Amino acid sequence: GESVGLHLPTLSVQEGDNSIINCAYSNSASDYFIWYKQESGKGPQFIIDIRSNMDKRQGQRVTVLLNKTVKHLSLQIAATQPGDSAVYFCAENIIPRLTFGEGTQLTVNP
Amino acid sequence: DTEVTQTPKHLVMGMTNKKSLKCEQHMGHRAMYWYKQKAKKPPELMFVYSYEKLSINESVPSRFSPECPNSSLLNLHLHALQPEDSALYLCASSQDTNTGELFFGEGSRLTVL
Description:
The complex is a heterodimer of chains A (110) and B (113). With 110 residues, chain A is an all-beta fold. Chain A is 0% helix and 57% strand. Chain A is built from no helices and 11 strands. Chain A has strands at residues 4-6, 10-14, 19-25, 32-38, 45-51, 56-58, 62-67, 72-77, 86-94, 97-100, 104-109. Chain B has 113 residues and is mainly β. Chain B has strands at residues 4-7, 10-13, 18-25, 31-37, 44-50, 53-57, 64-70, 73-79, 87-94, 103-104, 108-112. In chain B, strands 2, 4, 5, 6, 9, 10 and 11 form a 7-stranded mixed beta sheet that branches. A 4-stranded antiparallel beta sheet of chain B has the order 1-3-8-7, with no helix packed on it.
């Protein structure tokens, strides 16, 4: 079965607010996680990744946090914009398989 | 060029037809993938090619037949499909299979009548 999953299927935020999308995993041996964004009518797009030797990684307006103790990771999007509206997937890479969890639909309200 | 190009974008076929989906990348990537995605569900891995050799087949029915003619091209041959095979078929590529940074095409939307 799936080893990664998300807590909420939908998230609605106001433009300019920060968004937090959560993901839980079950395999303690998992050591490489990736966040993808999928806009309507498009394929998934890589956002950011993190390996288990890190707790936090930052990109442009995005931060991924990894808590290995509780097997949880989150994606934080700062100053959310309408263009951030999409489905967000966390994925686990157990080489060479990239396995996606269920997605969260992020809606940004103006 | 950071694109993965998939053709056709839409395909409608009967259960007795034979058709193919095509995928192309010119990023010099040595790993290529086929995923299947149903509406409102995550992509599901079907096949992985590494250096033009099939390295993973996720127990996909034989009515789906992948082919990697060269390092830039990936095909998915379809034959005797079922209506439940209707889905979005996504091709992706990556530098190699050690990275989780995959580049996806926009997909081929398949409808089986």
